[in-house]
Amino acid sequence: MATTSTEATGLRSAFYQELKQLHMSPLWESLSVLVPHAPNGPCVPALWKWSDVLPFIKRAGELITAEEAVRRVLILENPALPGQSSVTQSLYAGLQLILPGEVAPAHRHVQSALRFIVHGSGAYTAVDGERTTMSPGDFIITPSWTWHDHGNPGIEGEAEPVVWLDGLDIPIVRFFDAGFEEKATAKSQAVSRPEGNALARYGHNLLPVDYEPTSRTSPIFSYPYERSREVLDRLYRDGELDDWHGVKLRYVNPATGGWPMPTMATFIQYLPRGFASKPFRTTDGAVYSVVEGSGRAIVDGIAFEFGPRDHFVVPSWQTFTLQADEDTVLFSFSDRPVQAALGILREEKIAV
Ligand code: GTQ
């Protein structure tokens, strides 16, 4: 028997070698990896402390201008995916800096982008002729294929450097090999609408009478923190605390009730001081930005201690709990709309 098996092994590896020349391979050698019993991707959980990151952001600001860089961003790479510019297999995250007096020139691309303001106020992003001024905790959208430029009109020495989290579906678009990009001729796009116009039209449970959605993306570009924070507070006071999520809300496209972007879901969540969630797992791994408070995420038994402006990533299907030492607000984003559209999203609230 042993001889036969050794002989078989030898014959098989010779066969595999020959097969390679035809650019073919035997499924039975990789079946359990290709069709895993449960998600078995390479991503690991990781934490980026603001105190570690900030000095590097400042140095980037000294080394290159926003204009030269086009986008002066330090990418958050999953430690298990070095060089892939990915924080999970489907998501990109980065921290973008814009200094007073700078402009990041107008361009457009197929990739959808979200901005979550981490530090500083007074910079703007312009989409569709409307500028939105950024404040910490605001969630801002750049829809697929829309012209956008960023600027910080403040005076050097007076105005603040502004840093925000960029969340893009770069790996998804790369996966489909469907990326296009164009540079605008003008550095900044012309302003054709007053600030707040989109929020007035679409953000008050009303819509212009003849409005028909023309894209899959929310017509609101900005979801100000003030409003989200107020709702979290109110719902907590009304007793709506989930054992797994605390008070967790999803941002919506007010014209459809669906996700604000076709490829990325965004959430804002409140965990009161002393809250310890029950364990949870979901196939939509997510990137978190800590707005207020402190505590820890315990992912597969490893604790990641977080405070304001820290970022962390929880990969697909890894069991995690969230604990708050102070009243805590977390923003997060994931590829949930894609998984939901494909019918492959799975999540589990684990009872203990
Ligand atoms: O602001 O347009 O972090 O195009 C990566 C690619 C930001 C942007 C990023 C981009 C942008």
UniProtKB/TrEMBL annotation:
<keyword id="KW-0560">Oxidoreductase</keyword>
<dbReference type="GO" id="GO:0047922">
    <property type="term" value="F:gentisate 1,2-dioxygenase activity"/>
</dbReference>
<dbReference type="InterPro" id="IPR013096">
    <property type="entry name" value="Cupin_2"/>
</dbReference>
<dbReference type="Pfam" id="PF07883">
    <property type="entry name" value="Cupin_2"/>
</dbReference>
<protein>
    <recommendedName>
        <fullName>Gentisate 1,2-dioxygenase</fullName>
        <ecNumber>1.13.11.4</ecNumber>
    </recommendedName>
</protein>
<dbReference type="InterPro" id="IPR014710">
    <property type="entry name" value="RmlC-like_jellyroll"/>
</dbReference>
<keyword id="KW-0223">Dioxygenase</keyword>
<dbReference type="InterPro" id="IPR047183">
    <property type="entry name" value="GDO-like"/>
</dbReference>
<dbReference type="InterPro" id="IPR011051">
    <property type="entry name" value="RmlC_Cupin_sf"/>
</dbReference>
<feature type="domain" description="Cupin type-2">
    <location>
        <begin position="95"/>
        <end position="156"/>
    </location>
</feature>
<dbReference type="InterPro" id="IPR011960">
    <property type="entry name" value="Gentisate_dOase"/>
</dbReference>
